[in-house]
Amino acid sequence: MKKAGKFTFTxxxxxxxxxxxxxxxxxxFDKTDVITxxxxxxxxYAALPADGESVLPDLxxxxxxxxxxxxxxxxxxxxxxxxxxxxxxxxxxxxxRRNQQPQLAQGxxxxxxxxxxxxxxxxxxxxxxxxxxxxxxxxxxxFEARLVGSDPSTDIALLKIExxxxxxxxxxxxxxLRLGEWVLAVGNPFNLTSTVTAGIVxxxxxxxxxxxxxxxxxxxxxTDAAVNPGNSGGALVxxxxxxxxxxxxxxxxxxxxxxxxxxxxxxxxxxVVTDLKEFGEVQRALLGVTIGDVDAKIAEELKLEKVxxxxxxxxxxxxxxxxxxIKKGDVIINVGSDKVMNxxxxxxxxxxxxxxxxxxxxxxxxxxxxxxxxxxxxxxxDTQIVRDNITVLGAEFETINKNDKKNLDIExxxxxxxxxxxxxxxxxIKEGFIITNVNKKPIYExxxxxxxxxxxxxGILVEGVYSNGELAYFVFGVE
Length: 479
Prior knowledge:
By secondary structure, the chain is α+β, with helices and mostly antiparallel strands. The protein has 4 domains: 50 residues; 227 residues, Beta Barrel (Thrombin, subunit H); 87 residues, Pdz3 Domain, CATH 2.30.42; 87 residues, PDZ domain (Pdz3 Domain, Roll). It starts with a helix and ends with a strand.
């Protein structure tokens, strides 16, 4: 009996131990539920970076496609130098001074190659007043560049290097650009080699009022891609590696990137580049109106359904808009087939046309839509294409070299290398003459001459020197 009782007790202990073991295993070692959870988590993780995939777009193609077409631009300019004839009366007449210490200024920025033969677009402020422009490719090759033309009103300039088989970017479609779209800023910040940063399109049609030119056009693309000093003139590209803008400005209190950057849209860039190549200057088409953005107060007064469009404050007498029938109080809502929400968008759309082009303008007047066909005009009030204003001078020019500067004791000037029939020849100027000043303003490059001729009213005073050191001045009129 004792053995039987002992056996029974032992058996019960074994059974109890088995239950304890099963409970312990199920509690501490059985992972069935955890595996199920893992399987559920695996489904959730499928779209996350942990599994090798990304919610971000793949920008590698765009970066690799654009980096070789973006160049570094280094410039040199001299300001503050003076020269004297040695004759006090002559110096006083022309306002010449000796012993003004010249200052050598160096600058840098970026540019974008647009053709296989070396056309390069950049910002006007990158190369403005530069005597020497050096272009450095991503493969370290260096080229001297010449200025084809520039447009201060859009801050765009066009350069040319003598090269072949260059990598270049093609234009993207500006109408397809959307808010929130991923973009890349490619440039040379802080004098570094090509650098790529990414961001999204934060806003379109921004007007910062930073350009003081009378005919300035600002309709910037705003992004949060990092842009720093040296990026100016670089490329803003889309995910396909197409050029959609030229990086131009940053919003900053420190001079460095703090969250916002701005680019000239390709719609403006393309028009400016085409005009500079074909005409030497931009063909600016004007509506002939003073305008303002529609705000809530104006919308209420005019009983507009939406707070959008561009309010016409006045229509210039004999201007394109007035001749077509547009008048004060109208609200412009369409240019062609494109809707316009504000002044920046209106300026951008009109800037794509040339003088003489017909464009349909839709306005709201007294609560009704009206359509007008406007024949756009140039700044002179007619429909003619404006030719390069120095063609009337009848000359070709070249920059002076170091020997000219040293031998003649001058710091600036452009030399007449080929003289034909025109204003200069009629005034008695001969080939080889170096123009140093026009209307008391120093001339460093052909663009300076263009600007002063364009700004002149009535007469032009040209000062300069011949290669033998003979000083001379000439006066002639302009139309």
